[in-house]
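Marked as duplicate of an earlier ticket. Keeping the data here for the record.
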Amino acid sequence: MRFTRRKVLLGLVALVVIGWAWSGLGSNGEAPIESQAGTVTLVIDFGAESGRAPIIRKVESFSGTGWELFEAAGVEVAGTAEFPAGFVCRVEGFPSVANQDCLDTPKFNEGSWAYFVTNSKLATGWLLSGAGAASHRPECGAFEGWLWVAPGESSGQKLPSVAAKPDNCEG
């Protein structure tokens, strides 16, 4: 059976939607309790090929979503026309408008941003997020990472270059 890029992209979108729905419910099927405010670290890795240094911002007293963390950290983010506050297309002007118009979700040959998370309760290191940033609520001490995945590369091939060192924020 041959997989086309379109089928793979549709499959990935379906996984994100399922992850979003799953993360929105507690273990008993009820909505989760709001996360408590605390320090969350945002990491933006533009990739070695970009020539840009990673951005690392710690945000104190944060209790919003991963998407809201961009604003709280003073980092410019643009979504797509289809998903203006849900699918990251451009961070701090990267990639350029000439390389990505942000009218729709980027195609495999255009490159895209991959979303990674970690906290003190997860395995060490970065994990590719199964939920979108607009529905994910990082806990105190968490790290939220964005990595530019160059055209033709898979998000499973790389991790953000900045080491994540989550804290549990307890005593």
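See parent ticket for discussion. Residues 5-34 have pLDDT under 50 and may be disordered.
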